[in-house]
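Could you join me in thinking about how sequence relates to backbone shape in a protein? Label the sequence line and the structure token line clearly, so we can match residues to local backbone shapes. Once you have written the record down, we can walk along the chain together.
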Amino acid sequence: MKTALIPVLLLAACGPIPVADAEQLCLDRARLAQQPRGQVAVGVTSDGGAASRIELDISTDYLTGRDPAVVFENCVVARSGQLPTRPLYQMPGYKS
């Protein structure tokens, strides 16, 4: 009986999420559509050698020139099934 419940629980996890949660998740995707993000780290190892790391996040939305506001709205609708409660440019923490 317990194994029959597993597929049901997995499907429930794939369902829509509250619109406020979707807005927060999609805000990051909209930021990446606006511009790439990255960081560089340089340091010295314990044996005196040099160490470095470069990370660069570029989204296909940025590469194709998609409007971050459209990316945001489509993402929210896809995750929650509802329109955002406000446009991207009115979201707290978003800088255009």
Remarks:
- The mean pLDDT is 87.
